[in-house]
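Lay summary. Proteins are chains of building blocks that fold into shapes, and those shapes determine what they do. In this project we predict the shape from the chain. Here is one chain we studied, written as its sequence of building blocks.
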Amino acid sequence: MTSSTLPTPSPRMGGHILVDQLLAHGTEHVFCVPGESYLAVLDGLHDADIQVTVCRQEGGASMMADAYGKLTGKPGICMVTRGPGAANAMAGVHIAMQDSTPFILFVGQIERGMREREAFQEMDYRAVFGTQTKWTTEIDQVERIPEIISRAFHIATSGRPGPVVIALPEDMLVEMAAVADAPRYEVIESAPTTQQLQALAQQLAQARKPIAILGGTRWNQSAVDQFSDFCTRHQLPVAVQFRRQMLCSTAHPCFVGDVGLGSNPELMRYIKEADLVLLVGGRMPEVASQSYSLFDIPVPAQNLIHVHPDASELNRVYRADLGINVSPMAFAQALSDLSPAHTPVWSAERDRLRASYVAWNDPTAITHPGTLQMGQVMNYLRTALPDDAILCNGAGNYATWVHRFHPFTRYGTQLAPTSGSMGYGLPAAVGAKRINPSRTVVCFAGDGCFMMHGQEFATAVQYQLPIIVLLIDNGMYGTIRMHQERNYPARLSATALQNPDFAAYAQAFGGHGERVETTEQFAPAFERALASGKPAILHCLIDPEAISPTTTLQKIREQAQAAQA
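And here is the predicted shape, written in a compact code that computers can read:
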């Protein structure tokens, strides 16, 4: 059918046209806090086959949408009102930018005729969000809604995925227009060239101490499996970047650990001494690079093969010997026929690294002050949780227990912000359970982290989402206190917290809540939380001295005081 024979569209209100575009692009979920600035869109959602999750704060809504983008690879959709609503949503936008998550935020806007008068809740969205998004725009003409939303889906998912912000003037949304829907977006893929694959094979053949480091987005389970097969054939040691544990099964004999906070020192030494690094999907930013110390800048001492879906990221910080501008999915697929030219000479090194990882990853070897031992908690969860359980966390030292000791074995089982944003775990868990109701979802949260978006527990109760929150309470902003003791020992300032009874908090919202003070209490409490069928909080009180798996606050303080003496 040619354009001249297409039926003439019927006039529709702008808010309804927008919702129809979401449907055309395959949107199934919207996370929002309602506002009068986009009532016409809410009206369009009334009859649409889109699941709407109403949240309690815009930051929580944006984090749920980010979680959706991480799990599905499709843009997470968030809707908030103008001004304060948009400001609250900024946290999720920043996460999506640093984490390379496909994400679209729709924001209500003042009427077009009121601009530049500092009208009620007026905000210049291009100025406010411009540096934190791939694209920020405003729809001035109702007829352009299909065009702009189509472009937003393509930008959010292409190259290095990321956030798009679209402002919606209130008067534009109630105008009528007869426009056609845009066709569904398609992610454009490219493939490595024959010459690039040959160069990769040649560099591997010449290597003596190689390693692969996986990160970024635009992966799926198939790509993870294909790359794992490649590592098996080449006996190639493989590590993952900070909070990207689900990119390689911890059970794989080639997996040697994660490159992030609190990483295995033996792995860090090996990477510095490596003669070839195959970096796939990730940027190797500050945390993964150990504050940019693993590789020399701009030219690493190691031969570097960098595979990334965005050309602007290649050679941005590290000058690669070979840059390959493709997604991890396309790259992993192209490796299927690449076999080693000879028996790898580094298999003994791989076995040594693997043994070091297994010992480093043993939670039963860890003890710390207090009656609730987190090593034993993590060991119990290894057997209690199914392989497809989704683990979520925000930021804080408590998260080290998850990243170091949980055996991630499948893609799509981890939700954690590489941006280090506090408050992420609970909204992410709500979003994950909303779109995967049959899977077990567990949120790890510190006491400070939880309280930043703890109100989203009400969202879990409203939609009957039986998530389990393991609330690790040490009565302080632990990470900040740790750094405080290192730099200003024994000078406690602004890091202590007085917390509520979080078990009672859960019960007040209509959920299940229990207080856990000893190791022996944890397993029965966890089983009761599962059996309750309700959103649950296990209020786990740990000794403040148990600041990390490897040290205590007292040791940090003593070391700092000795260094200053």
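What the prediction tells us: The chain has three domains: 9-177, 194-358, 362-564.
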